[in-house]
Structure formats: structure tokens, C-alpha cells
Amino acid sequence: MRVIEVSSKELYTNVLSRNIQELVIDADSMVLGRLASIVAKLALMNIKIHVVNVEKAVLTGDKNRVIEGYKLLFNVKTHKNPYRHAIHRPRNPVTLFKKTVKNMLPKHNWRGVEALKNIKAYIDIPSSFQEKDVVKIVDISIYNREAEKYITLAELAKALGWHQKV
């Protein structure tokens, strides 16, 4: 596995100039929202994207505040019958990431549906991607920011009730 470090602008120009159809992105220590917006933009260009190490993506902010913000969504009930049950909310890192990307895609358009089909997210690095080049986007890394408070997606998922199967 070879890691290629690029900025987001270099990534867009390389994808367009080299006519790349498939891309493997490493989410380790990347800010979730910035990574999701780049992935959504690339998916709208009809590129198949595989995001590995998605559980190591980070959310900036105080740990307790981020967790409580996500837990507030569990108390929201349906309009149809609010006494019956709540809306299903994602708890594992892959579905949390895909839900974040889905909210950045066109909702009432076939382009958004097709773009979401082009995105795959994985916990750790699968063995099928060991021989492929992995892209690491440098300018959205947590190390480039002065954020002292952050939480990984795995920590958030565990706080929401996710149990990792080994």
C-alpha cells in the first residue's frame, strides 16, 4: 500500500486531468465534514470512492457536547405516531459517515442517488485495498488545525451504543 499525500485542490485537478474512475481515500485524522464534502463532490463527478479507516475520522469540538448533540436526535419522535417509536438513527461509524455524505448530496434528484451508490466506506483497510494507492488529503487533517478538542467517529459511535464485532 502506497500513501499519496495531496491537497484537496490537487486532488480535483488530478482526478479531472487523469480521468480517474476509482479512488481510495484514507480518513485517518481527517475532519468529518470536510472529508464528506470532498467525497460528495467527487461522487457527483461519477467517480467510485472507497473511504478506508472511517472510524478514525474526527469531529471537532468538546467531546461531551458532540455526543450530547447526537444523542438529542434519539429523542425525536415521528409525526405519524409520536407515542409509538422514534426514528431509526445510525450508530456505527460507516453509517454515520454515509449519512453525513448523503446530507451533502442533491435530495430530489437522480444524481444524488447515483452518487451515493458510488461511495463505499470501510472500517480499517480491507485486504483487497492493500495493493492499491491510498490518497491522504493533507489540508483537511486535524493536525493542520489548532483544534485541541476533538472526538473520533469510533468514540462517538461507542457512546451512541455501537458494539464493534471482531
Automatic annotation (TrEMBL):
Its keywords, alphabetically, are: Ribonucleoprotein, Ribosomal protein
> Which is a GO BP term held by this UniProt record?
translation
Q: Which Pfam families match?
A: Ribosomal_L13 (PF00572)
Look up keyword ATP-binding and say if it applies. no
Among InterPro entries, the record links this protein to: Ribosomal_uL13, Ribosomal_uL13_bac-type, Ribosomal_uL13_euk/arc, Ribosomal_uL13_sf
**What's one GO MF term for it?**
structural constituent of ribosome
Q: Which GO terms describe its cellular component?
A: cytosolic large ribosomal subunit
Source domain of life: Archaea
Cross-referenced SUPFAM superfamilies: Ribosomal protein L13 (SSF52161)
Task: Indicate the quaternary assembly.
Answer: Part of the 50S ribosomal subunit.
Q: What does this protein do?
A: This protein is one of the early assembly proteins of the 50S ribosomal subunit, although it is not seen to bind rRNA by itself. It is important during the early stages of 50S assembly.
> Which family does the UniProt entry place this protein in?
Belongs to the universal ribosomal protein uL13 family.
Output the PANTHER family linked to this UniProt entry.
LARGE RIBOSOMAL SUBUNIT PROTEIN UL13 (PTHR11545:SF3), RIBOSOMAL PROTEIN L13 (PTHR11545)
Q: Sorted alphabetically, which HAMAP family does this protein's record hold?
A: Ribosomal_uL13
Q: What is this protein called?
A: Large ribosomal subunit protein uL13
Specify the species: Ignisphaera cupida
